[in-house]
């Protein structure tokens, strides 16, 4: 009955509190917290370190074919390795349906990929792009089997759903217990903007920003909030990038609509100017929605502080700067034919820690809350994101004084560049423990790819439907 591992003398930080003490681990779970705990078979001296739950990144694209048919640069092995080096111990990536595919089949295919390569525990969002045939029944069955998150696009050819299909997916989630996540941008406004820019000969990467106007985000966010209200089904609005977007979410939540929302690292730490680089260099940081203005960044931070936004994810979507990725449609492709996304799994926690703890913005408990505890709680990842006895022993030992300047190609994914090169952060993960096993130690990989397990999502409080605002049929 002894402890397998005792992490001794660190400063333990959870979403609720901070205190000096020891953490004991047995059979891959937290067994005890306290001071002067009994000797473990293995001991780690954590003096001078923060001891926190490992990061939970509930929005990342891994080994996924994009709607445009371009493959991510990462496999589960390279993506989860990168995550672990950055202190993240759980990912939720996408099982992506394309029209014509059966949802059950899609999930089976991604499961094979993750089982082969994942270094850390993982779950999936089911991208629903086609509800024909038996797909809604398959979706219901997957949800009941613990795949309790669906993801819908309101834009992008091939993968976007029309309003009626969206409402049917919301009904299916409501009946079975799940969250429905959205990439919410108005498709027509984007296409209309793209056409005008191309007609004017404006094709450089920086025109990606005006091609995804703020109003496209606002229209679709508002519509999805109204759908949540109409059906009573909880929704998660991905990657809020604008000040007005925060206001829409805040107003919806104020009306009692079951709406949750995230922002991503690159909206907090980059503005639209990053796209304006010589030649095609801006392609490296192109994502949708695009980065916005400094005033939007302030509004996003304020939204996090107030709780209008509950979490910060990476939207890790790696494409190499070559013909396999960003330039699959040619080295001088117009902005609308360049793969969208940037790597973020490894940099998310260091950037957020530097801003929130080292620079003092919102503090360490809130850092743990928005990067680990809240994502785990909302998505029903019951054993993750916390350090209470019984929780999975996913723990990061963080050196708050370590200083690092990001290099041009220093990440452990397969993307080939670091979009934050040159930026200094204070604070770095020293030792990363997953289910009681050290997987990264002092910059060395120790864990074995494939050791990660699928996390079954429980029905979380956030998934519980509220009364729909629309009529219900009367007998
Ligand atoms: N935007 C998305 O919506 N998904 C992947 C990458 C991106 O930039
Ligand atoms: Zn697995
Ligand atoms: Zn998206
Ligand atoms: Zn995404």
Average pLDDT confidence is 97
H/E topology pattern? EEEEEEHEHEHEHEHHHEHEHHEHHEEEE
Sum up the overall morphology in one term: globular
Number of helices: 12
> In what range is the share of β-strand residues?
15-25%
For the sheet with most strands, the description reads: 9 strands, mixed
Helix content: 25-40%
Q: List the ligand species.
A: dihydropyrimidine-2,4(1H,3H)-dione, zinc ion
State Rg. 21 Å
Enumerate the spans where pLDDT stays under 50 for 5 or more consecutive residues. none
Count of beta strands: 17
Category by helix and strand content? alpha/beta
Distance between the termini: 60 Å
How would the blueprint of this fold be written?
Blueprint: E1 3-13, E2 18-26, E3 29-34, E4 40-45, E5 50-53, E6 55-57, H1 76-85, E7 88-96, H2 103-117, E8 121-127, H3 135-144, E9 149-153, H4 163-176, E10 179-183, H5 187-199, H6 208-211, H7 214-231, E11 235-237, H8 243-254, E12 259-264, H9 265-269, H10 294-306, E13 311-313, H11 348-358, H12 363-378, E14 395-405, E15 424-434, E16 437-441, E17 444-445
Parallel strand pairs: 1-4, 1-5, 6-7, 7-8, 8-9, 9-10, 10-11, 11-12, 12-13
Antiparallel strand pairs: 1-2, 2-3, 5-14, 14-15, 15-16, 16-17
Helix pairs in contact: 1-2, 3-4, 7-8, 8-10, 11-12
The protein binds dihydropyrimidine-2,4(1H,3H)-dione and zinc ion (ZN) (3 copies).
One zinc ion binds at residues 183, 238-239.
């Amino acid at each position: 009955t002894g402890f397998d591992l005792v992490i001794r003398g660190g400063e333990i930080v959870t979403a609720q509190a901070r205190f000096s003490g020891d953490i004991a681990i047995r059979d891959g779970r937290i067994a005890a917290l306290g001071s002067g705990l009994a000797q473990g078979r293995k001991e780690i001296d954590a003096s001078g370190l923060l001891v926190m739950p490992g990061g939970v990144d509930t929005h990342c694209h891994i080994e996924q074919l994009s709607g445009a048919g371009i493959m991510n640069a990462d496999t589960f092995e390279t993506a989860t390795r990168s995550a672990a080096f950055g202190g993240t111990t759980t990912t939720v990536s996408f099982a992506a349906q394309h029209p014509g595919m059966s949802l059950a089949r899609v999930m089976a295919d991604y499961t094979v990929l993750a089982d082969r390569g994942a270094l850390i525990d993982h779950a999936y969002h089911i991208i629903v792009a086609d509800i024909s045939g038996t797909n809604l029944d398959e979706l219901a069955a997957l949800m009941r089997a613990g795949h309790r998150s669906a993801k819908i696009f309101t834009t992008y050819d091939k993968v976007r759903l029309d309003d009626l299909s969206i409402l049917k997916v919301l009904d299916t989630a409501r009946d079975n217990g799940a969250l429905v996540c959205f990439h919410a941008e108005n498709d027509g406004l984007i296409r209309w903007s793209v056409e005008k820019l191309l007609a004017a000969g404006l094709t450089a990467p920086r025109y990606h920003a005006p091609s995804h106007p703020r109003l496209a985000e606002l229209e679709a966010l508002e519509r999805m909030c109204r759908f949540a209200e109409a059906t009573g089904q909880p929704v998660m609005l991905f990657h809020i990038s604008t000040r007005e977007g925060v206001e829409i979410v805040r107003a919806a939540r104020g009306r009692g609509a079951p709406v949750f929302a995230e922002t991503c690292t690159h909206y907090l730490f980059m503005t639209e100017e990053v796209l304006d680089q010589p030649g095609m260099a801006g392609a490296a940081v192109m994502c949708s929605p695009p980065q916005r203005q400094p005033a939007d960044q302030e509004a996003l931070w304020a939204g996090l502080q107030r709780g209008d936004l509950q979490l910060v994810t990476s939207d890790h979507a790696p494409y190499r700067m070559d013909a396999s990725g960003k330039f699959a449609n040619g080295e001088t492709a117009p902005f609308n034919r360049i793969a969208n996304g940037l790597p973020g799994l490894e940099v998310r926690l260091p950037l957020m820690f530097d801003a929130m703890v080292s620079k003092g913005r919102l503090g360490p408990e809130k850092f743990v809350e928005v990067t680990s505890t809240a994502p785990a709680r909302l998505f029903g990842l019951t054993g993750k994101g916390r350090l209470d006895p019984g929780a999975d022993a996913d723990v990061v030992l963080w050196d708050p004084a370590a200083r690092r300047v990001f290099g041009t190609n220093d990440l452990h994914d397969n993307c080939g560049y670091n979009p934050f090169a040159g930026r200094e952060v204070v604070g770095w993960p020293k030792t990363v423990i997953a289910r009681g096993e050290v997987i990264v130690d002092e910059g060395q990989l120790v864990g074995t790819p494939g050791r990660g397990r699928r996390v079954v999502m429980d029905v979380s409080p956030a998934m519980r439907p509220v009364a729909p605002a629309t009529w219900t049929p009367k007998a």
